[in-house]
Amino acid sequence: MPILGCAILPHSPMILDPNREGCPDGIREIHEGCKAVGQVVASWEPELVVFLTPHGISAPKSPRPGIYLTPSATGTAEQAGNWADYELAIQIDSEIATGFLNHLGSSGVACVKITGTEAPLAPSEIVPLWFLRGLSLLKRAPRFMLLSLPTPIGGTSIIRSESSKERVPDMLMYGSHLHKYLSWLSHRVAIVLSGDLAHTHATACKVPMYLPNPEWKMPVSDAAAVFDAIVEKWASTLNGDFITRDAAALVKQAISCAFDGLVVLQAIMEKEGTSKFSRHIFARHRPTYVGMIAAVFQVDKRVPCPEFSYTPPVLSE
């Protein structure tokens, strides 16, 4: 199993179209950064993409992670009547997914099986996948193993973040199990995390489509900026303490749906050897209330350093 690299992509639909009238500052920067991540991941020519989502189907009462065993999954990025025209489908490698399910079961980790002919995808999956759609143009398009991280009762980012710190040991163990299983495969593997950083930034934006749903009652916290800066520091160093200690201490106040997945990525890259990964942060911004980062951690040395071919967008003053 060659792990070619890992990537982080945000999933707020606001980043899909930077040309919309009234688009807040920072969205174009994130959009272009996500495009660059998609190009780098496609250049790896993976045979399998392991896709981690915090808002997929899982078992909230346990909570238990979910594994998609359907042959395909489809959906749109529609949110509050916007972005419905962003629609796509992916092919899932149900055989590999079943193998991981069995591996977790033999290790004493209970999971939810998502079965049927086709699974639904939400914006939390569609938005990152939109930036990865270049994978479908490869001579041998990869299949996906779609994994839903455990979601506590209620499923919102606020509820998830209340107990994220307590789940750190479980997420480290989950990442170790995933790395071990992937090590048995012969496939060229890319691992992609869908997730947003702190959801509690103050913003002057008044346009509803760029703001949280009022029903979420999202607070504002001074911890947001600090949390995002810590995650960027982690992404530039892969020093696990920045995530499992420093970010963990703030996630309850900062509120981040990406946190659990960041812990999983840290466990995978530690098992693989963090020194193998070159680190590339293409964008980090908080256009309105939510922070986002677009980054890759690359192992495959045959691909040139991503920064050499990436030109950041020219932003207006």
Automatic annotation (TrEMBL):
Superkingdom classification of source: Eukaryota
Protein name: Extradiol ring-cleavage dioxygenase class III enzyme subunit B domain-containing protein
